[in-house]
Amino acid sequence: MGQDPGCVSCTANRQRLTARPKLGQHFLIRGSTLERIAAAACPKPEAQVVEIGPGRGALTEKLLARAARVVAVEIDSDLADHLRRKFAGEERLEILAQDALETDFSQWGHASITGNLPYYVASPILTKVARLDVPRAVFLIQKEVAERLVAKPGERAYGFLTVQIALWMEARRLFEVKPAAFRPPPKVDSAVVLLEPRKQKLPVGDPDAFLAFVSLAFRHKRKTLRNNLAETYGKENVDRWPEASLRAEQLSLEQFLEIYKRLGALAVS
After folding, report:
1. pTM over 0.85
2. Looking at the predicted structure, is the pLDDT value of residue 61 above 90?
3. Which of 36, 92, 130, 157 is most solvent-facing, going by the fewest CB within 10 Å?
């Protein structure tokens, strides 16, 4: 007896959705974890929420139960088609088959953002979202990246990404997620982080120029500020700083801002 062509099509579609090594996709399947992420992204009924990388729509379902409208941004066209079939007739869901890194999220205004971010794209998306006017952002990311977001000065994970995100957002790790919660299971642990706007905006006239300075300070992480900055700002100037013998990983965001102010005064004088 021959196989139904429709079944062949379904099988092929399932195979396409199962293996995505080129995108590093691991689909979260544990219902309790999905509920916790949705609750963190939408602690109360929301008018709108944006989901990055909805995959097969497991989290999307939870978000639709908490928000009046969901916008799902999915780079994989096959998965986007799968979502359109799965949620056919759901007028509250908008599915966009496009790259989140090329998407203007400001078009959705003051909407919460959430999603499961692959390792290779987590940092650029985090830095993109951090600048937005959003009430909160909740992301499932590799545990290593989560540790960098919440690290304190002097800790091993503390680095440029920590300072960059902290310029706009306060980061908090909510809970860890083990590989068994995914299909296929990744080789590393993951964690869910919450980003919320800083309660007090920091006095930075040109954020990009400030971050370029911070990046230079972290250029060689194990070297001192003197070694990293003397060539650019002059050894005699840097030597006068009380922080000259410290490494960038030992300085708080506020200390970086103080040094940056001195550089501004130096440029004027």
Report:
1. yes
2. yes
3. 92
